[in-house]
Design goal:
alpha/beta, two-stranded antiparallel sheet, LysR_subst-bd, 8-stranded mixed β-sheet, 11 helices, Arc Repressor Mutant, subunit A, 12 strands, D-Maltodextrin-Binding Protein, domain 2, 322 residues, transcription
């Protein structure tokens, strides 16, 4: 009968020892200095304990690493081989530790950022991303434009780390919503509309639009701004005649340019050079504001997301001080 089962497995008994990395650092210092006393001074310990630690390493490895000379330490062939690998191992460890720390600091890794259409046009968002990229150029960034409801679901599904949204979030469970700024809203009218007065008019009272046909972004895509506009119109004494709804704000401007009706949009969207559209400041509607919020998962924010949030808060505070 074969006695193979009675033969001990060599690899079981030759398992590599668990080496304290500190011993490898001590070994490298002695190898580079070629002298125990000089190595001890370099690493800040006494010579006797260092000598003892080198012997511990040799005992754990089962080899002699140094020839002890009257005036120094000389590497054996085994010691010379270990020096090459020990340097590489510790260099890789240092690189890994540095990378892990950079990821925690938000300087490495990945980040997924979402924003609504109107938020993507606001210079504040551009400034936040620009500042983040300057501070963390090694972070891979992906962006997604969608409506508020879809962005919130993407946050909850961990497909996004942060999102710039306009609308207040009804069910904010598990999320933190921070208001970055509020901006005025303006009226957008066709260029040949009588209320534009041939381009002479620069502002208009909200109640002056009471008889106009309104074009609105569909409420499910932007419930906050939709409800804010309707409420402001009611406060101004009328209920707007909404004759057309579009999926995006840019689509509403196209319809305004075509003469279909008028609309109300965040002031930052006036940067869209829509031919055939005139933008007028609104008066008599002090509560008609468009907020910009930053949303993220509560208690589950990556280093990169934390860094971008810090940039956003810094820029937001700067705007408020002006």
């Amino acid at each position: 009968m074969s006695n193979i089962c009675q033969t001990p497995y060599p690899y079981y008994y030759d398992m590599p020892p668990s080496i304290d990395l500190r011993l490898l650092r001590y070994f490298i210092a002695v190898a580079e200095e070629g002298h125990l006393t000089k190595a001890a001074e370099r690493i800040g310990i006494q010579q006797p304990p260092l000598s003892q630690q080198i012997r511990v390493l040799e005992r754990e490895l089962g080899v002699t690493l140094f020839n002890r000379l009257p005036r120094g330490m000389e590497l054996t062939d085994s010691g010379a081989a270990l020096l090459i690998d020990a340097r590489a191992l510790l260099a890789q460890l240092d690189t890994t530790v540095a990378s892990v720390r950079r990821i925690a600091q938000g300087k490495m890794g990945r980040i997924a950022v979402g924003f609504t259409e109107s938020a993507s046009l606001h210079p504040f968002v551009h400034s936040v991303i620009r500042a983040f990229r300057a501070d963390a150029p090694d972070v891979a960034m992906t962006v997604e434009e969608s409506n508020t409801n879809e962005l919130i679901e993407a946050l909850r599904g961990k497909r996004l780390d942060l999102a710039f949204v306009r609308s207040p979030v009804g069910d904010s469970g598990g999320l933190t919503i921070e208001t970055m700024l509020e901006e005025d809203m303006v009226a957008a009218l066709p260029i040949d509309h009588p209320l534009v007065d041939g381009g002479k008019r620069k502002s208009i009272a909200l109640h002056a639009l009471a008889e106009e046909s309104f074009i609105m972004t569909r409420r499910p895509n932007g419930p906050g701004l939709y409800d804010t506009i309707i409420a402001a119109c009611h406060a101004a004494g009328f209920s707007p005649q909404v004759i057309q709804e579009a999926r995006k704000n840019l689509s509403t401007l196209s319809l305004v340019a075509a003469g279909v009706g008028v609309t109300v949009i965040p002031a930052s969207m006036t940067r869209v050079n829509a031919e055939g559209v005139v933008y007028l400041k609104l008066t008599g509607a002090p509560d008609l504001k468009a907020p910009l919020h930053l949303a993220y998962r509560t208690g589950s924010i990556s280093g990169a997301a934390r860094l971008m949030r810090e940039e956003a808060l810094k820029l937001s505070a700067g705007r408020k001080r002006r």
